[in-house]
Amino acid sequence: MEIISSADQGKTGIVARLKSVFGRLKAKAADVGKGMKKIGQDDPRIIVHSVKVALALTIVSLFYYFRPLYDGFGPSGMWAVLTVVVIFEFTVGATLSKALNRGLATFLAGSLGIGAEYLASLFGEKGEPIVLGFLVFLLAAASTFTRFFPHIKKKYDYGVLIFILTFSLVAVSGYRVEKIIELAHQRLSTIIIGGATCMIISIFLCPVWAGEELHNLIALNLEKLATFLEGFGGEYFANSEDGKSAALSKDDQSCLVGYRSILNTKATEESLANFAWWEPRHGQFRLRHPWKLYLKVAVLVRQCAYQIETLNGYINSELKGQGTSELETKIEEPCTRMSSESAKALKELASALKTMTHPSAADIHVQNCKTAVDDLKDALEAFTLGKSDLLEILPAVTVASILNDVSKCVQKIAESTHEISDLASFKRVNSMVAPDLKLQLLHRGSVKPIAAGGHVVIRVHQTSCSDSPEDTNSRAKKAMEV
Amino acid sequence: MEIISSADQGKTGIVARLKSVFGRLKAKAADVGKGMKKIGQDDPRIIVHSVKVALALTIVSLFYYFRPLYDGFGPSGMWAVLTVVVIFEFTVGATLSKALNRGLATFLAGSLGIGAEYLASLFGEKGEPIVLGFLVFLLAAASTFTRFFPHIKKKYDYGVLIFILTFSLVAVSGYRVEKIIELAHQRLSTIIIGGATCMIISIFLCPVWAGEELHNLIALNLEKLATFLEGFGGEYFANSEDGKSAALSKDDQSCLVGYRSILNTKATEESLANFAWWEPRHGQFRLRHPWKLYLKVAVLVRQCAYQIETLNGYINSELKGQGTSELETKIEEPCTRMSSESAKALKELASALKTMTHPSAADIHVQNCKTAVDDLKDALEAFTLGKSDLLEILPAVTVASILNDVSKCVQKIAESTHEISDLASFKRVNSMVAPDLKLQLLHRGSVKPIAAGGHVVIRVHQTSCSDSPEDTNSRAKKAMEV
Q1: Which of A339-343, B66-70, B324-328 has the lowest mean pLDDT?
Q2: Count of CB contacts below 8 A, A vs B?
Q3: What residue spans define the domains of chain A?
Q4: Cα–Cα 20 to 30 A to B283, which of A206, A416, B373, B478?
């Protein structure tokens, strides 16, 4: 009896264990499903890209599969399949870079391989493998070494890889295959077929241009900085006034630290700029668009993000006193103005980049920011310690000082954006605003017209912190302020 | 005559142009030569790596070349060559990751491909290409999509690529090649031969371990932070005293900003940690060394570098007055102490990491730093403005405040390093110092023994700012302080 019951227990145990395994598998599958959905929703272009790759691969595979084409190329047809899988990348620039690298390297290495084969054959049957082995060794070592050159690593890394590969294959296989030139010709043709399929699908079917990505990324990063600076003044001084933290909701706070992603975008920006170099003229971008200048702006934007990261530490600093110090009351106005004017300038710059118009609308905000800096200096000069001591006002003084650094950085960003605008000849906006646009604006925000001077202030309540596609309002405002 | 002279001129022109072209080519070649020499000198392991790749490739090529082996594997031998070129990477971890990914993916996709082939054959001659095309499309789209999953992108990206490649090749080629299983078997064997050659050479011939690289990189970054903090106090306050900048030579200044490379190491660190995951036990590192904790320290180190970047802006700030303000005189001592004690703590942590000993020697410096912070607070509380105004003392106050942040960050770094030490069970150093080591130390630095208390100060003049291989001295100092 005991034996049977223990066997029963064993069975129940197995069933329970199987159930738990299935339960975990189900939960895991649900997780994966959610993850997939999120990726697809975050960037639907990933789904489009997957379909594009599958399409190119199916076309080339069927091309390989059907007899008439197969008879022409022999088993070399597989190189077309291989080429598609390996070179199809997310952006057009990356695909072009790999396709051209692969094509050129195959041609070069193929020719050299045939030469090596010929040279080695002069040494007789015994000398041939030694000479070939020596040549392969030499070229492989030299090519691998060149892959560490910064310039080659950046643009031609893949080409060098394919060069070594093809050279070895051609040089060594020559001994066996009699019709080496025919084989090389077949292989090159199939690679060209595969490469061309990729390039055509990549360029003409919902293309993702690396240049445009870089352009948008820089504009987005400018906006992220602006979002922080826009909120900072209110957040820091609101804290002081209430004597407690969290004046903003959690959502708004995560908006505020959106700039953090900028801290680590260097690699992305550089590879995008690198791929953009390979791209033909597209949309509003000429063939020689000043991509290098974008990197210059990117460096300054990152510099600004570092300062903001330090600044952010002071929002909920424990060093800060509970109430509002006398100094905080005095510098609140100029500091908030510095912060918000810098934010406005950055938003104008971002919008100018996005719409590829001259960023002259940012100039007034840069100027306003300079005035605010002067006001801050006056306030600091006039301040006497009174009852408070230096330790108490330490955070406020530090915030003022770093904000000053940030505003200088914003000035530099404005200068560099002007440079891009000049080199890429962004269009200058007309100072006249079309009447219907003006009317539209009156309905969109609260406009407070001033009789003389033509300086118009428009307030629009922005609620979303996500990258809004286009800031029509700021463009219009710019037109009015010019 | 005129015609001849113009022809002569043309000739002279061509000669001159050729000369200039050759001159430029020569200069270019000299540049490239210099570049090569520099790369080789900076990291001789690159040369070793090139030779290793060439060796692996030559072995596999000759294996393909010689008839007896060739007869066994047929043209599939080329897959061995291909495998070597594609998977041989700089670090052992990267090579293993690629080799295992490639082997597994080929096996999986090959099996699935044969299955697909069988399934399609059930649909008759007309249905077969349609079913096969559909299957290739489906799998290619799904696999490409999974490449965007963060976890898969990190560890199995290459495997998925090879999976798509092999599946397409097997599924589509099945129609032609009768002996598909034999072919798949041949291909897998040659890939295993290529992969094994790479792995063996990579592991046993001057291996470069990704884990060790990460370990050293983190230690080096700690030292770079320390170098800045060590120099900062002197540099900032020396400026104030002299009323002019550049108390340090240019070389020293470039030493000081060595921390800048830390700002952008995130990608390198993460890929190294990822490759380290694939590596077997080596040297002092167990199989499950806590590589993830290294990334935690890396995040804190970068945080510290951001603050230091802001701090660095104040060394030659224009805001700073010409002379030494009263405040600067008052806070110079605690600030310099905070900075130098933080630097000492970081150096101890770096040395503890390098030697894999318990970082208890850093604790006293962290404690000293906390005392310095308290002293600074006292100095600030006791300060009255007197003749100077707030604008004048702005930079000094900001520097003090950011230094306080930095010292907090150093504390966190120390805590995380303790965590690594506990998890990886770093050895605790004995408080007794071997007599011969003590003697050795007496000859290496100036040792000032104190009669009671056992607290020994050792000063060694460091002249180089490059990554010194191992700080024996600081290890010994630690042993004495325990």
Answers
A1: B66-70
A2: 219
A3: 2-37, 47-204, 210-427, 439-480
A4: B478
pLDDT band at B469 (very low <50, low <70, confident <90, very high): very low
Interface ipTM > 0.90: no
Q: How confident is the model at residue B444 (pLDDT cuts 50, 70, 90)?
A: very low
Q: Closest-CA residue in chain A for B262?
A: A264
Contact B389 A382 (CB under 8 A): yes
Q: A224 and A262 in contact (C-beta within 8 Å)?
A: yes
CB contact under 8 A, A46 and B148: yes
Record: contact A405-B267, CB cut-off 8 A: no
Local confidence band at A37 (pLDDT 50, 70, 90 cut-offs): confident
Characterise B402 by phi-psi region: left (phi > 0), alpha (psi -120 to 50), beta (else).
alpha
Share of chain B above pLDDT 70, in %: 77
Matching CATH number, A210-427, of 3.20.20.100, 3.40.50.720, 1.20.58.220, 1.20.1250.20 = 1.20.58.220
Q: Is B309 on the interface with A (CB under 8 A)?
A: yes
pLDDT over 70 at B5, yes or no: no
Cβ-based contacts of A388 with chain B (< 8 Å): none
Dump pLDDT digits (tens) for A262-305.
998 888 999 999 999 888 888 788 878 888 899 999 999 999 99
pLDDT band at A10 (very low <50, low <70, confident <90, very high): low
Q: Could you read off the pLDDT of A366-414 as tens digits, one per residue?
A: 999 999 999 988 888 887 776 677 787 888 888 888 999 899 999 999 9
Q: Which of B471, B445, B465 has the alpha carbon at shortest distance from B350?
A: B471
Instruction: Give the A window 241-270 contacts with B, CB below 8 Å.
Output: 263-264, 266-267
Q: How confident is the model at residue B460 (pLDDT cuts 50, 70, 90)?
A: very low
State the pLDDT at residue A250.
Answer: 62
Chain A partners of B141 at a C-beta cutoff of 8 Å? 50-51, 53-54
A:371-390 residues touching chain B, CB 8 A cutoff = 377, 380-385, 389-390
Chain B interface includes A107 (CB < 8 A): no
Would you call A385 and B380 a contact, using CB atoms and an 8 Å cutoff?
A: no
- Of the candidates A89, A86, A93, the residue with the CA atom closest to the CA atom of residue A60: A86
Given this model, what pLDDT does residue A439 score? Answer: 40
Mutate to test the interface with B, among A47, A117, A148, A190 (most CBs of B within 10 A): A148
